[in-house]
Design brief:
This protein has about 375 residues and is of the alpha/beta class. The chain folds into two domains: about 240 residues, Type I PLP-dependent aspartate aminotransferase-like (Major domain) (Aspartate Aminotransferase, domain 2), CATH 3.40.640.10; about 120 residues, Alpha-Beta Complex (Aspartate Aminotransferase, domain 1), CATH 3.90.1150.10. About 40% of the residues lie in helices and about 15% in strands. The protein has 13 helices and twelve strands. The strands form two sheets. The chain has a seven-stranded mixed beta sheet with strand order 1-7-6-5-4-2-3, with helices on both faces. Helix 7 links the parallel strand 5 and strand 6. Helix 2 runs parallel beside helix 9, helix 10 packs parallel to helix 13 and helix 11 packs across helix 13. The longest helix is centred in the last third of the chain and has 20 residues. The chain starts with 5 loop residues before the first helix and ends with a helix. About 45% of the residues are buried. The mean pLDDT is about 95. The chain binds pyridoxal-5'-phosphate. The site of pyridoxal-5'-phosphate has 15 residues, from helix 3 and helix 4.
């Protein structure tokens, strides 16, 4: 068959998987055990931690979307990160970026204390500064692009060349852009991971993670490790994620269109000091003129929900300083621009004029209430 477009592949996930019934929708195989005909004879399934047909359908699709050799569906984004780090051991050194997801930073601090895997943080700017962080025991570079929450884009192809030159693995958390806007493996990265809880799932209803790798040897290592540690995604959650993925391309298109309109509106607003939007995707951060305005704004908004997540169809507003990035000390945050004036929006797929109207009325209320100007 001809090579299909990604939009087609996602819409068709799970179809034609059940010869017997012809089910169009992927069946949820809840069975944890699978019957064997005889010694050495198996359907390919024996126990659900090791393999499950619903999870297989999801993993096949994830591998295709990211252009990888194999994908692994895990119980959360954090367990995806944990699985990735099973590759490293005491004494290893990892380089990450300063404005990395707060939960990743917390996990790094823990394994640093418990397992003496050490970390250095790069500001994401000059490659010459990155080179200064490389040590003989360095094993990998772990990044997010765009960075979170400052929305700075990194040059993945350049970083991949750098990583190769220094014999480091390049690990990319692709949660924000998804394979729709960025395919790190094609640009030279070794490992891509996701909090599938966000855009891949897309409906604020499933906690999930994914790891996708390019190299078969690395894939075999992660397959064995995932079976050993067991943080796999449950069958029902695999089904929810499949359901979400079917509309990934449609949703991302709308998220981006709306975010562009919202970013343009915010950039012109007098209470907004600076908008951080790289021009792609559905995530926007902005500095409000005064930290005192944050709480009134959160209360004034009617459509944007004050909640800690992103990537769902419903628009959310998050305050990184006390929510997603609370584990990063204030002086560290301030030093790189994650100040108490920074607010983050996950722009949903609602009508963009309604989203802009909500922000407009919210900011007007704040202005009246605080008499800020
Ligand atoms: C949410 C998030 C994670 C963690 O994923 P969970 O599914 O919440 O465990 C990791 N990276 C990024 C960029 C995230 O936004």
């Amino acid at each position: 068959m001809v090579k299909l477009e990604k939009e087609t592949i996602v819409a068709q996930i799970g179809n034609k998987k059940c010869e017997k019934t012809g089910a169009v929708n992927m069946p949820i195989y809840l069975s944890t055990a699978y019957r064997h005909e005889d010694l050495g004879r198996s359907t390919g399934f024996d126990y659900t931690r090791t393999g499950n047909p619903t999870r297989d359908a999801l993993q096949e699709a994830l591998a295709v979307l990211e252009g990888g050799y194999q994908a692994f569906a895990t119980s959360s984004g954090m367990s995806a990160i944990q699985l990735v780090f099973e590759k490293f051991q005491t004494g290893d050194h990892i380089i990450s970026i300063q404005d990395v997801y707060g939960g990743s930073f917390r996990f790094f601090r823990q394994i640093e204390a418990k397992y003496q895997i050490s970390f250095s943080y790069w500001d994401g700017r000059a490659l010459s500064d990155l080179a200064l962080l490389v040590r003989p025991e360095s094993k990998a570079i772990f990044i997010e692009t765009p960075s979170n929450p400052l929305m700075r884009e990194l040059d993945l192809a350049e970083l991949a060349r750098f990583a190769k030159q220094h014999h480091l693995l390049l690990i990319v958390d692709n949660t924000f852009y998804t394979p729709v806007f960025q395919q790190p493996l094609a640009l030279g990265a070794d490992i891509v991971l996701h909090s599938a809880t966000k855009y891949l799932g897309g409906h604020n209803d499933v906690l999930a993670g994914a790891v996708i790798v390019k190299d078969p040897t690395l894939a075999a290592f992660y397959e064995e490790t995932l079976n050993a540690i067991g943080c796999v995604l449950a069958p029902f959650d695999c089904w929810l994620l499949i359901r979400g993925l079917k509309t990934l391309y449609l949703r991302m298109k709308q998220h981006q269109e709306n975010a562009r309109a919202v970013a343009a509106f915010l950039a012109e607003h007098p209470l907004v000091q600076q908008v951080l939007y790289p021009g792609k995707g559905g995530m926007i951060s902005f500095y409000i003129q005064d930290e005192k305005l944050v709480s009134p704004l959160l209360r004034a908004l009617e459509l944007f929900t004050f909640a800690e997540s992103l990537g769902g169809v419903e628009s959310l507003i998050t305050y990184p300083a006390t929510q997603t990035h609370a584990d990063i000390p204030k002086d560290v945050r301030d030093a790189y621009g994650l100040t108490n004036q920074l607010v983050r929006l996950s722009v949903g797929i609602e009508a963009k004029q309604d989203l802009i109207a909500d922000l407009s009325q919210g900011l007007a209320k704040v202005e009246a209430e605080v008499g800020a100007r």
